[in-house]
Write a structure and sequence with these properties.
The chain is mainly alpha-helical and 249 residues long. It contains nine helices and no strands. It folds into two domains: 81 residues; 138 residues, no CATH class. The mean pLDDT is 88. Pfam families: DUF1206.
Length: 249
Amino acid sequence: MARGVIYLLVGVLAVRIAFSDGGGQQADRGGALADIAHKPFGDVLLWLLGIALVGMALWRLSEAVIGQPGKDGDKPTKRLAAAGRAVFYGFVSYSVLAYAAGEKGSGSGATDKRTDDVTAKVLGWPGGQWILAIAGIGVACAGAWIAARALMRKFHKHLKMAEMSRRQRQVVDVLGMFGGASRGVLFATAGGFAVAAAVQHKPGKSKGMDDTLRSFADTPAGPWLLVLIAVGLIAFGLFSWANARWRDV
């Protein structure tokens, strides 16, 4: 549920930006948290969101320790992937809770500046260009993998499809395919920018989520491609809620 809230808000912020109504907000996690903070009972909602994301991290950690559901849930690769997700959601939950506690400059801030800082630091290391290029290729490949699995509806094996009605299955399929593909395209594009930063040795070429989303508006399709990806992220947020209801855990 918490992951769905983040993606829904990022998607909504991106739609606003596409129509020049972003109000200076960032279409990333920091922008989503700022948006929540300005709502009634915003502080309470931030604490609830942070605690829920702790639950996400602990769930992934449990999968790393005792394995995932299914006949191949004990495979080392699946355990390692679950451990990586646990670390990721651990960081996300910490950044949200830090933001809720008043540390507005915490890890929940604008992703673009953090990306530039990290990229510049990596490029300063011996072999930094190679490290950044390999990382960028890894992110781009992960994005392509996410999109491909979504389009092939691989998420079916993780959901209790038999408990859904025919209409519910149709809706979940549309949300999962469209949302997953959009999320994958976003990751793949961000990875491509990281590779460009490595090749050109320019930290500014690497982009966080906000700048990556804005880059879609600079294509010949104009803001409509950004709108398409943004609506896809909203769809992924709704798909996350479907996972909360029907996920086989």
